[in-house]
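Milestone M4 deliverable, item 7.
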Amino acid sequence: MAEPQQIQFRSDVTVELVRASAHDSDVLFAARVSTQGEKTLDAAAAGDDATARDRGLINYLMRDRHGSPFEHNSMTFYVQAPIFVFREFMRHRIASYNEESGRYRELNPVFYVPGPERNLVQVGKPGAYEFLPGTPEQTALVDAEVRGVCETAYASYQRMLDAGIAREVARAVLPVTIYSSMYVTMNARSLMNFLSLRTKREGTTFPSFPQREIEMVAEKMEQHFAELMPLTAETFDANGRVAP
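Output delivered:
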């Protein structure tokens, strides 16, 4: 019988930028080809940074929703999050995904438990929920119940593996709070679409009400996006966070 692994509980998510070919200047040569044709080749090959003078063109494209110039770039992220976050994420059919497999490897005993700052009480109606802090008793109850269920489930998983049961069968007892990992690759236009739906910001044109855990992933992805394409990110925000 294998030595059981120590169960871990986390209240955070991990988002790492693995590689990227994404610059504000990518938007410019893609947009200008419509009027300049082959004259844009030198600028495209040079990969020079966009300047403050280019802000107007990027703003025009964003404002009037000329979206295709924002597609000529790529960002690949490595994400660690509970499985229920990935199931929400993959509803966005705007990216390429590869996730670790519970059929081919024994899943690590790392589980999500809401942190004490996580709002617990839901009020309102579908599509416009508000979440309020729980009482200390509710917070303690959530913590205890999640930990207890995860510990029991992983012990059951281990017993089946030790008995020779296939991983793809044994994993059936594991809750969606278990962490998984994936690579996700998308362009800036797709990322802005994701951010518009999975972050809640005041003053947005179309308010969104995301679940907090996927919003945590979106916030970390947006930090990388803003570093790679600052003019595009600023213009996206200034135009009500509407994906072009």
